[in-house]
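B., you asked whether I could sanity-check this one before it goes into the benchmark set. Here's the sequence:
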Amino acid sequence: MAVGLVAAFMTLLDVSIVNVAIPSIDEAIHATPSDLQWILSGYALTFGLILVPAGRFGDIRGRRNVFIIGLGLFTLTSAGAGLAPSPTWLIVARLLQGAAAGLVNPQVIGLIQQLYQGAARGRPFGLLGATIGISTGVGPLLGGVLIQLGGEHNGWRLVFFVNVPVGILTMIAAWRVLPTHPPRRAERQGLDPVGVLLLGVGVVLLLLPLVQRQQWQGWLKWLLIPAGLLVLLGFVGWELRYRRHREPLFDLALFRLRSYSLGTLIGLLYFAGFVAIFFLFTIYLQSGLRYTALEAGIAITPFAVGSAITATLGGRIVNRFGRPLVAIGLATVAFGLACVVLALHYVPGHGAPWATALPLLVAGLGSGLVITPNQNLALSEVPVAQAGSAAGMLQTGQRIGAAAGIAGVGAIFFTTLASTHNGWSRAFRDSLLVTIGFVLVALVAAIVDSRTEQRGSPAGPGGTG
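And here's what the prediction gave me:
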């Protein structure tokens, strides 16, 4: 578990840690706005693209080997990003780094499914949930510290170089302690290449207009989204046909499990708001209030602290309370963010970090009761043999949700900023209201499921849904 959590922390940290490094990167290698967008979003794009094939590959060929290969590639590409002499070099390194992270993450969840059974999964999933919350929230803080140590011109390189020694040590530990399992003989014939291609193209077409929303002007880019949906519909048709003869890339029958389908939906909706909070708060503090990278990171820390406190607890008690625990967490997040909006209304400007500290802590406490329990419930009925691909699809939904959230919430933020002539506090408040909307929709889904469960509908093991 320690090996898996360290790897998960590293790969998820790189989603948020680069946000505070953007001004430093811009100054050092003279990147254009389009370059900076790709440096930020390219990682998430390839991360989401590789998750399901990587999970399936681990299911078939053995999770230990795929984990070590992915971690080795992640370490190597992190070093390449830190050495980047130009924006193009850094973009390519980030794309490859994201793909390597996508190889690693499904193996961590698959190993938990493989090594723990039933209620015993609560504690490791709790630790994983705490890791997700801490890595996302502490990323700006750690990035700020590293930039402070390395200086404004080269501090951003430390953001990538820090992965190298940790990655090497984790690879050695993984080689020694992770269990080995022989490949599954029945699936030696292949990895469903047509399914991989259709899913990959569909995910790229969905994510590309979202990550390039500011650089690609006009409305034509949004036509890629219906095109992506059509390709994904083709993927569904192919998988249904393919499974008659061989085991497909992803078994769509998993969505017949209410626990898995609902968990995937809640994860998508919650990450649409969850990730956008950190992205926009960092911009607000650094560009609007002229805080340093370190000061911006410190201001966001209360959310990470709150999430870490409750994530482990949530993993332990989810089997007792089931989906209502997720609903309580979502309601707490919405309440905390609403208090942030009120705090910014009465204390705008440079007092904002102090005024929002307690509300962000409350929202973080709620977040810890969402990510871990929802992940546990979503995978509670998934067969161990499909754990990697199921985890990959679950995380793909989270990546799509995060990209859609940043695009939608970001559009509100920048539109309000332009209309109010740099009214930073107003722009952040309005964007938070959209974020709260995503959380409330997820809350409705959790409440409906809880009511259905109480009326005696089929539930997962232990009545967890």
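One thing to flag: The CA atoms of residues 303 and 364 lie 4 Å apart. Otherwise nothing jumped out at me.
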